[in-house]
Amino acid sequence: MGDQPLVTLKGITKSFGAVQSLRGVDLTLAPGEVLGLVGDNGAGKSTLMKVLAGAVQHDAGQITIDGREVRFASPADARRERIGIVYQDLALCDTLDVASNLFLGREPRKGPFIDRRAMHEKAAETLSDLHVRVKSTYQEIGHLSGGQRQAVAIARAVSFKPRVLILDEPTAALAVAEVRQVLAMIKDVAAQGVGVILITHRLQDLFEVCDRITVMYEGRSVEDEPVSDLDIERLVAMITRSGSEHTEEVA
Ligand SMILES: Nc1ncnc2c1ncn2[C@@H]1O[C@H](COP(=O)(O)OP(=O)(O)O)[C@@H](O)[C@H]1O
Ligand SMILES: [Mg+2]
Q1: 65 CB under 6 A from ligand 1?
Q2: Ligand 1 pocket mutation, candidates 16, 87, 169, criterion most atoms within 8 A of CB
Q3: How far is the C-alpha of 170 from the C-alpha of 147, rounded, in Å?
Q4: Where is the ABC transporter domain (predicted)?
């Protein structure tokens, strides 16, 4: 892990009409770190990550990347800063094959035509680098298991060579063996120096892959602790703010 944070979010706020989803969130992420982002439903996790990915524009607060303040007007701006995100509902195209999904919108070309052979070769290489096994890169995405789809979605995000990779509930609908594969991918990607932010309700997964955990509660970041200082029971108390050490603040 480097000394300077890769990402710093400071005092991020966001309202949708009368709903104040983010009320001042602080978060940091170091290169090669896996940060768990947890909180009850509606705490603001997905909104915060959309802000970092340029899909939602915050009202106030600062985003700093490598010590430089940035402002994202669109997902393309965030992509240019090499921030990758895999959304909760995977944006894959069921009727296209694995390789086409991996390279959708930036297919290798030969003159005006998509170079299918090169695309499938590159797809196979990308997947094998990430230890993802699919029968064939010609398989339609719609025919794959949930875990394989998730793996392809992550592989697509990784193929953009992100510095930051955000995963919003990547294991929510997966079978046990598939969860293992996704967790292994996360470790692989972080080992290459990418900062990973993992949102999940599967708290046991956090203890397996995370270095640190940030807890959100009603639009605020309320806790930030190394995983080595935590156990599941304490984490649950932090998420629900039920522990004796978490007395309600007066707003
Ligand atoms: N586009 C939107 N319009 C209105 N309200 C929204 C929008 N996106 C999120 N919210 C609200 O913001 C709050 C936080 O939502 P979200 O970020 O999805 O929480 P989490 O991911 O932690 O479950 C919720 O009350 C949600 O209803
Ligand atoms: Mg969410």
Answers
A1: no
A2: 16
A3: 9
A4: 7-243
Name the residue at shortest CA distance from atom 16 of ligand 1: 44
Architecture, CATH, for domain 7-92+145-240? 3-Layer(aba) Sandwich (3.40)
Lowest mean pLDDT among 23-27, 97-101, 243-247: 243-247
| DSSP letter string, 174-236 | --HHHHHHHHHHHHHHHHTT-EEEEE-S-HHHHHHH-SEEEEEETTEEEEEEEGGG--HHHHH
- Give the tens place of pLDDT for each residue, 153-203: 999 999 999 999 999 999 888 888 889 989 999 999 999 999 999 999 999
Q: Indicate which atom in ligand 1 lies nearest the CA of residue 56.
A: 1
pLDDT of 248 reads 52
Q: Which ligand is nearest to the CA of 170?
A: 2
Q: Which atom of ligand 1 is nearest to the CA of 199?
A: 21
Each residue's pLDDT tens digit, 96-126: 999 999 999 899 999 999 999 999 999 999 9
Q: Where are the domains of the chain?
A: 7-92+145-240
DSSP annotation of 59? S
